[in-house]
Structure formats: C-alpha cells, structure tokens
Write a structure and sequence with these properties.
The chain is about 60% helix and about 5% strand. It is mainly alpha-helical. It has 2 domains: about 80 residues, no CATH class; about 60 residues, no CATH class. The radius of gyration is 18 Å and the shape is globular. The protein starts with a helix and ends with a helix.
Amino acid sequence: MEEHEAYHQERRRRFTDDEHADLQQRKQQYQQARGTERYALFHEHAERLWASDVADKHRASVLLTGLVDSPWLPNEDANHFLGHDAARLMETPEMRERLRNVPIPTWILHGEADPRPIRHAQQLAALLPKAQFVPLADCGHIPWAEQPEAFRESIRQFISQ
C-alpha cells in the first residue's frame, strides 16, 4: 500500500462518521471561499483535520494554535506533489545508495501515534549509517507540542553523543 494511501486510511479511521462528514463539509466551504472568509474557514477546517495528527485529538485545539494561527495559508497543491515526489524518490535504488553513504549523524524522531506510517521513518533510519531512530510514545505529528519535555530530552541525548 502506498504511504499516502495508508496515511489517509489511518487519518479517516480516527474520525467518527459525524466528524468526517463535518470535516468534508468544512473542506468544501474552505475550498470555495475567497479572501478573508477563506482564511477564517481554513482555521476551522485545519483545526478539525489536524486533530487526527495528534495523539489526543481532544487536546488538538490547544496544541495546534500556533500552526493554525499563521498569517499564511499552506500551499496544499505543493504539499501534495512534494509528498508524492518524496515517496517516489525514496524508492529508487540511487537514492537508497546515496543515503547509505551519508556520513553525518542523523536524528529521526517519529511519534508513535502519528497517522503517517512509522515504517518509513524506520526504513530511512536503517539506510543512514549514523542514524538514531527515536519512536516517541503518546505522540503524533507535532512532538515539540505534544511531548515537549520528551522531545527536548531526545534532542539533548542526540547532541551529547
């Protein structure tokens, strides 16, 4: 199964049917809006959508405030295409060989509750000869907000080596 498909299936699984229907309705409204209305609707849509990215969706609003309150809207098309390009590129033998030859220490942290498949972070760490893979428990896609002390401690351990 392709990484994006697995991610979207996991993200969908995390919503009740009512939450998913509300999310789809807000997405449609956001995509059709323009100007300041689009910005306001983005906040509502993103807050609900990104709730699936954190370990405890009931804390999502507080955790995501800084991300949602940005004055810029994300370029969703760019994110989509870059994500697919990155996944495709990682599968090439040339890239795998290049990664095997990266001589620098690399820290790869992945929240265990992140809907993005952990196996890809593990595979990347396995390819990099000096990688340290750190799975972070009770954490989704924004570890610095969800588990700030565990995140900082992991960084401290990595840079002290």
